[in-house]
Design goal:
single chain, alpha/beta, Oxidized Rhodanese, domain 1, 12% strand
Length: 136
């Protein structure tokens, strides 16, 4: 049996002090934050999925591979930088798990895109793809 990651107020698997630090953001609000450079978008999905498509400007910090990639992330992203994490969709807990690690490491402002990249797509918002990278 799989429990939903966000059920009611308490988020299973997350200590209350961590869960209370997250703020959830809808796709339209996320779009405004991204456009106004108010957040750094962090994709917590697996690397091949990030390579296939991701929110424009997003950095890849996958849950599977976090320990390997975190040192470079920490060296380039200050702990006071507002972050917006996302994963696959409603039933995906990767963003929350990465967020928990980032909060424990001292990151102060961690948001999660509600319903992940699926919400972004459903709102018909732009994605970066490999073809766009090759044009640059």
């Amino acid at each position: 049996m799989q429990l939903p990651l966000f059920a009611g107020e308490l988020k299973p698997g997350l200590p209350r002090w961590v869960a209370n630090r997250f703020h959830q953001v809808g796709a339209e609000e996320a779009k405004r934050l991204v456009q106004n450079l108010k957040v750094l978008v962090v994709d917590t999905r697996d690397g091949p999925d990030f390579a296939q498509e991701h929110i424009p400007g997003a950095l890849s910090l996958p849950y599977h591979g976090f320990s390997r990639q975190y040192p470079e992330f920490a060296a380039t992203v200050s702990a006071d930088r507002p972050l917006l994490l996302y994963c696959y969709g409603s039933d995906c807990g990767l963003a929350a798990r990465v967020g928990k690690r980032l909060i424990a490491a001292g990151y102060m402002d961690v948001g999660i895109l509600r319903h992940g990249i699926e919400a972004w797509k459903a709102a018909d918002l732009p994605l970066e793809t490999p073809e766009e990278h090759s044009e640059h």
